[in-house]
Amino acid sequence: MNNSNEQYIGKQLADNLFNHSGVFVLPALTLLSGEHIRLITQHKILLEPHDVLQLDSATFYQLAVDDCTAAMESIFEELRYTKTKRLPMIELRNEVIPFIQQVSEKNDFYGILAALQSKDDYTYRHNVAVGIISTLLGKWLKLKPDELSMLTTAATLHDIGKIMIPAEILTKPGPLNDEEYALMKKHTTLGYEMIRDTVGTTHMQALVALQHHERMDGSGYPFGVLGHRITDFSKIVAVADIFHAMTSDRFYRTAAPLYEVLRQMDDNVYGKLDPYICSVFINKLMQSMIGNEVLLTDGRIGKIIMILAHDPLRPLVNIGDDFIDLSRHRQLGVVRVIPQ
User: Fold this and answer.
1) Which of 8, 51, 271, 289 is paired with 60 by a 20 to 30 Å CA distance?
2) What pTM was estimated for this model as a whole?
3) Helices marked H in the chain — which ranges?
């Protein structure tokens, strides 16, 4: 029975669910998690296709991301007020990780990105976003399934140390002063200790919390280590972390345009990221822009028709009867991608 119910994880209940004795079990529109499925199975209920709604992708992304964000908020808040600071890994594995994996399976980057755009819960939504983007990037880098699963958890927990940072610093509506910034940077070592001290985690996952702000050229924190001492998982999460942070509205600034963020990542504006991981990420995102219209620096609007492997940020653009290879016309560039 358990297995046949498990196929409905990630589906939404069509109606209020009652057991055979008429006892209320779950409300209509619940997005079913592993925990819900266990509860349903304990009540000896066997779900059937008509018990769930068929969701379109956009609705599923939004519901899954919203639910994961709410679960992360409850995990953060619970930890904030407990002395032990042991992470609730069972809750994380049941309520968050399966949805992140399901959303990542869709490979629809721009549809997913729309659901990840921060509302007024950036601190929590960011963890879910970095989990999803890192998982997609791990797939593009051809990680094995067990590595991918470990990466998803590590990425989702990368900022867990922030529960120890005062809320007024996390939500400050302007730049941090030196003292505040020094305190903020401690979230890396605090997160490392919390993950290390929790049963059911790995040292690699703890290192991601420690190292996701380290940079290849040693300009990062907390220890300023060079690239060869940064784990691959940490390098992947650093790319996902920067990308989501820069493309989201924050307390103190609005989101930067997507193309501009990719260009700045390529130019090392945010400190040195791993060049191979960064190039795979930029290439994949540009490939999925094929068919989109772009505004060029000379004011003309064209359509991306081909991404060039040697220079992905300078694609082949079609304007009327002309085909303009931006890699050969260096005086021209893309200002922004026009949303479809």
Assistant:
1) 289
2) 0.88
3) 2-6, 34-42, 57-80, 89-95, 97-105, 109-116, 122-140, 145-156, 167-170, 178-185, 187-196, 203-211, 232-246, 258-266, 275-287
